[in-house]
Specification:
Elements: H1 2-12, E1 18-20, E2 26-28, H2 31-40, H3 48-64, E3 71-73, E4 87-91, E5 97-99, E6 109-117, E7 120-128, E8 139-144, H4 160-174, E9 178-181, E10 185-186, E11 202-206, H5 217-220, H6 224-231, H7 249-264, H8 270-300, H9 317-325, H10 327-353, E12 359-364, H11 373-377, E13 386-390, E14 400-404, H12 409-414, H13 418-429, E15 433-436, E16 444-449, E17 458-461, H14 464-478, E18 481-484, H15 492-500, E19 505-508, E20 529-532, H16 541-545, H17 548-555, H18 563-583, H19 591-599, H20 606-619, E21 624-628, H21 629-633
Parallel strand pairs: 3-7, 8-9, 8-21, 9-12, 12-15, 15-18, 19-20, 20-21
Antiparallel strand pairs: 1-2, 4-5, 4-6, 6-7, 10-11, 13-14, 13-16, 16-17
Helix pairs in contact: 1-2, 1-3, 4-10, 8-10, 13-14, 18-19
Length: 694
Amino acid sequence: MVEEELAALARRYGVATRYTDWRGREIGVAPDTLRSVLAALGVDVSSPAAVLEELERERERERTRLLPPVVVARPGAGPPRPPGRPELTVELADGGALPFGDGETVPPGWHRLHARLGDRHESVPLLVAPRALARPERAWGFTVQLYSVPSSASWGIGDLHDLADLASWSARDLGAGFTLINPLHATETVPPVGPSPYSPMSRRFAAPLYLRVEDLPEFAALPAADRDRLSALGAPLRPDGDAARPIDRSAAWTAKLQALESLHRLPRGDAEQREFAEFRAREGGALTLFATWSALSEKHGPDWRGWPAELRDPGSRAVAGEAVRLADRVDFHSWLQWRLDGQLAAAQRAARDAGMPIGIVHDLAVGVAHGGADSWMYRDLFAPGMSVGAPPDEFNQRGQDWGQPPWHPRRLAEAAYAPFRDMLAAAFRHGGGLRLDHAMQVSRLWWVPEGGSPADGTYVRYDRDALLGCLAWEADRAGAVVVGEDLGTVEPEVREALAAHGVLGTSLLWFEQDDRGRPRPARRWREPSLATVGTHDMPPVTGFVHGDHIELRDRLGLLTRPRADEEDDHRRRLAGWVGVLHAEGLLPAPPETVLRALADGSAEYDDAVVAALHAFLVRTPARLVGVSLADAVGERRTQNQPGTVDEYPNWRVPLADAAGRPVLLDDLPSRALPAVEPLRSMAGEAGRVSPGSP
């Protein structure tokens, strides 16, 4: 009886008591997991009596509540129908009021909804979101881990100037319509700098690591001798021809930090000072808090949980006092974000000026580091003692713990999703699109109690309609495309909801199979999607077809079944795709000849297979087709091996070709790119493809 009441309480808080695993089996969630998750949500589950009291309190809240914390409506969908059917009135953002009887009568945007029932009155934010985002014209583009593609002029890591050049060249010379890059989220302020772009300090602000020092106005104003002195700081970091040497973010940031501090100390003219002040005013308190965290982290370390107790609360008097004492450093970190804003804008402008209809597509990580800036700034909106991850699946059979605190669903809603909305607005400001890493973040997340195994977690639900409404509103305002990474264990209704809001899905060739495990025919792929061959968590095509991932996972002890079984499955999968490519006329050589060469380690057909796979993507109806730059140049090494931290140089692999020779941005225009050739025709396809319903 006690466990039944615990389960009932969990369900009222959106905590799953059962779930379906990747094999289709129904799994019951352990009571200890439910207690841990509920406690993180602020629910008293310390005794059976406490559970009963909390359950009754929830029932009473549902009986008496007129409105949820935020109401989201879409044109034509009609207003919400709260219990008791109270009178609903909308207080419009620009003044005035009207009855909320039809969603069509309320203009899109944020308003305030009032509900009256007898002598009871409640008022909450109301968002009237777009019916759906318009689908983009058909286009292809590179998917790029920007840090891995330095030029001869960058400081050991691909930067925003490199991004502008890459986008301009691929648009102008190859007909690319977008460039999708890794998250540029803020990193640690002092070395060591963590390698993963998907475990940032903040998703709201960007990493100064990506600044091009020589492009700053302050640098241009220096005398020649001073410019040479600062440029010399980057000389030891410039590429040396060693593709085996991992990217060293800490070394790059140490050098850039010295240069940036020198430039920040220079006096500003009146016009610049006015522009900087306007930027700070626009960004408001969030920028001040982030810059304060940055200044404090330089002194006390990047994990605020280890700071003096009085500094762990961003609203404390001690923090306010430190912000005054560290005013110059707060100014410095605010200035860095201002200059990043300018270089991000320049990259998108360069992409659009070169003819890209979309331009830069940014990537939004699923979460932030436990002790980082966002979890300090919005401390009360995160659930303590929990980490976001993923349950065991086919490719990560031990499950995953990403070491990131989850949003507290109710508290985030009570804050009208303001931090989430601000994060989206910042991402759309200087980009034509956004990719949502782990798109399930708008619907449910796998919560893992700290110290437990990922397999001991459970799903916790969020208000999907509200989060998708916020996303669609911000994207529509920016005229941007949104792509959701809806891979792995995804509820069908999530994909349906994403599509209904105009969010494109993600289709990976290696995973596209029919019910019998055979390659899915091109005509049966989803149209509203971004189609690619693989992902950054897998080897590039050349490495995959040769089975590099199996050897690597075996060497690292990540396989949960015999290597021979993995190899048998790989051969079957590969044989299926090689057969399809041959049958489609995309790979002339007989399948058995190609497969024998691959099994023997021969590179004879590598380029032909890469080209054929991407030609197949062109034959699908997918709106967007992505080509990994690693695939384009023949790289074999994966950027990230899930399940490892230091056992593999995750997110530190510089771009190289099949022979292991480094590939700089400067080299790309003169290289043959077999993966790209089949995609050039897409530049003229937009008018021949049905745009679909918006």
